[in-house]
């Protein structure tokens, strides 16, 4: 998924439910490490984006939704690379107390990392393949040259 970084211009989009997770939270440590990798030149850019707990499965009628665009790109990447975004991204129906109408929503992960080589999406974490689930922490470990492989 993430091979050698030589001759690459890697950037990471961090998608998180909270702009500033509580102290001691692994999501905060992930962002701090990514910022260090950016400062040392391993990464060209790190951007932070916030999303909610879930979004309607269908994009808005005007078609303008960065979150929906990213979900579509992540799903396309997963399908082309033998991965699944489940269980981190889950489709389910949601009902409310004020309506009998059920709405399909996408339940979003607490944190998602999208790795790009220039404009090409090269990895999404978390994702699942036949070997198991690859986490955001594993993504950071693969990007950080200071972390040795076991």
From TrEMBL:
Protein name, UniProt field: HTH domain-containing protein
InterPro entries, A to Z: HTH_63
Organism superkingdom: Archaea
Organism for this UniProt entry: Halorubellus litoreus
């Amino acid at each position: 998924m993430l091979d050698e970084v030589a001759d690459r211009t890697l950037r990471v989009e961090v998608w998180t439910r909270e702009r500033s997770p509580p102290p001691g939270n692994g999501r905060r440590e992930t962002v701090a490490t990514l910022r260090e990798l950016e400062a040392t030149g391993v990464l060209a850019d790190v951007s932070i984006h916030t999303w909610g707990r879930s979004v309607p499965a269908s994009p808005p009628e005007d078609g303008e939704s960065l979150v929906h665009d990213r979900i579509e790109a992540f799903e396309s990447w997963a399908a082309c690379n033998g991965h699944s975004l489940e269980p981190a991204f889950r489709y389910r129906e949601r009902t409310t107390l004020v309506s009998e109408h059920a709405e399909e929503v996408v339940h979003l992960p607490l944190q998602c990392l999208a790795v790009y080589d220039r404009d090409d999406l090269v990895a999404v974490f978390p994702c699942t393949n036949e070997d198991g689930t690859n986490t955001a922490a594993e993504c950071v470990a693969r990007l950080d040259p200071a972390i040795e492989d076991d």
